[in-house]
Structures are given as C-alpha cells and as structure tokens.
Specification:
By secondary structure, this protein is of the alpha+beta class. Helix content is about 25%, strand content about 35%. It is built from four helices and 16 strands. Strands 9, 10, 11, 12, 15 and 16 form a six-stranded mixed sheet that branches. It has a four-stranded antiparallel sheet with strand order 5-7-1-8. Strand 3 and strand 4 form a beta hairpin. Helix 1 crosses helix 2.
Length: about 270
C-alpha cells in the first residue's frame, strides 16, 4: 500500500524540484516538529537501519524507507510506503502542506496559497512475461573505490551492481509492505535470478558528488527488463528516501541491446 501527498504551493509555480531538494524543503518547513519517521529516523534521531533477507535465497539487503520524497514542476510529493509510512504521511499531510506553503512564501516573497492532492493505492509485484521499465536517477554504489577503466570491465561492473540494487530494492520494499509475516497477495514473483531474467538495457553511469560528502556512481536514464509486473511506486538503490531510483511504469520495449558507457556528471 502507499499514500501520496502532492502539494502545489503558489511560491513554486514553474519551478522544477528533485526529490533531494523536496526533502530539504520539507525538513526546513517542519523544523521544530518532532516527526522522526517522516525522515526515516527513529525516536533517538538516528537514521533507521537494518537488513532484510531476500525471500528466495536469504541474501540480505538494506531496509526500505517508510517515506520517500519526490518532486516535479511546481509540486512537492511525499510518499508513505507500507502501513507505518502510510499512517505517517496521512496524519501529517495538513501540517506538511501548510508548512511548505508558508516556507515557500517566505522564500519567494509571494503568497502562501496552495492546493493539495492525495492518492492511495497498492504496491504490487506479480510474475509475468518480460516488462521494460525506466528509472529516475539511481545511486548504484558509493564511489569509495576505483572502478575499472576498461570500458568492457566497467560495463560489467555497472551491470553487476545494478542487478543487485534493483533486486534489493524490490525485495526490501516488498518486506516493508507485507511485514514480517510475508503474507500479502500483492507481493508475488520474487523468485530466482533466472526466473526474473533482469537485464539492463541502457543508461548513462556518472560519478557525482553527493550531499553526504562522498561520491557516488549514479545511473541516469536507466532502462531495464524484468519478468515482473510492477504496479505502484517502487524504489531501488541508495538514497531512496531522497527520491533516487524511482521505477517508472512499463512501456513498449524498444530494444534489447545494452548501451552503458562511462560518463561524467555535476552535482545532483
């Protein structure tokens, strides 16, 4: 399950925001309010951390966030994922909307007028034939080591890491939705790697500086094929709560070739 809040403050008209900026804006607007789960923190203020096992083979992945931030042109988007995330965003929606509108008014010098939209639905995985999906900017790995300089070796390393973050993102979010009982009719199809047949079709990997002070390997314009029907907002890779790695809805496959090459990028 998910619950999405969209806030359209007058002060953001015509301005494009990414998820990292939206998260920062909401944090500034909600300053002084004790809402740790909104920013995926515990009552002690520390980032929630932990591991979940992949259902098919027990491989471990980092836990999925309860709340994810996203943007667009003139809009602040906040997603609650799973029961705790849904309850958090639903309960805080009026406070978030008014606080963001007031914050953007203060920054722009205009009006605090705004409008809101809310959406809810199911996050679902089901075994299927091949489907092709697009990705927003996806943090594949922290660049704390040297990556191969040989183009073929670099491509192989990117593909290896990409497969892990996609499967890890799906497995950890499925755990978040289904809970420890793992009994949920919406979560099916996370079988073996051979069953999923996950393939990276295209994407531009770049090494970029991150706000954490380190560098990361980010895949831009990624497309992949997998034997899963993915419905609802799903995320993969690092910094998911900041809006990285959103899996887009399927569309008609265009190609089977892999087009991955080293690149360079600026600050995200």
């Amino acid at each position: 399950m998910y619950y999405e809040l969209r806030v359209f403050p007058k002060g953001l008209d015509g301005k494009r925001l990414h998820g990292d900026r939206v998260r920062q804006l909401v944090a500034q607007a909600m300053d002084g309010r004790s809402v740790p789960l909104l920013f995926n923190r515990g009552d002690d203020g520390k980032t929630l951390q932990g591991k979940v096992g992949r259902w098919a083979n027990g491989e471990e992945f980092g836990i999925a966030p309860h709340v994810v931030f996203g943007g667009g042109v003139g809009v602040v988007r906040v997603f609650g994922i799973g029961p705790a995330g849904v309850n958090c965003v639903r309960e805080l929606a009026p406070q978030i909307a008014m606080a963001v509108a007031e914050r953007t008014r203060a920054e722009s010098g205009g009006t605090a007028a705004f409008r809101c939209e809310t959406y809810s639905g199911r996050c679902r995985l089901a075994a299927s034939g091949p489907r092709v999906y697009r990705l927003s900017r996806t943090l594949v790995a922290k660049a704390d080591r040297d990556f191969p300089r040989d183009p073929a070796a670099f491509r192989a390393e990117v593909e290896k890491r990409f497969r892990r973050v996609i499967i890890g993102g799906l497995a950890s979010q499925a755990e978040r939705i289904a809970g420890v009982s793992r009994q949920n009719e919406d979560i099916e199809g996370l079988g073996t790697d051979d069953m999923l047949d996950l393939r990276l079709l295209s994407g531009r990997p770049v090494i970029v500086p991150l706000k954490t002070g380190c560098h990361g390997l980010v895949l831009e314009g990624g497309e992949f094929r997998i034997n899963l029907d993915i419905v609802g907002p799903w995320y993969a890779g690092g910094l998911r709560s900041w809006g990285y790695g959103q899996i887009r809805v399927p569309y008609h496959p265009r190609r089977e070739d892999v087009n991955v090459a080293p690149g360079s990028g600026g600050n995200l």
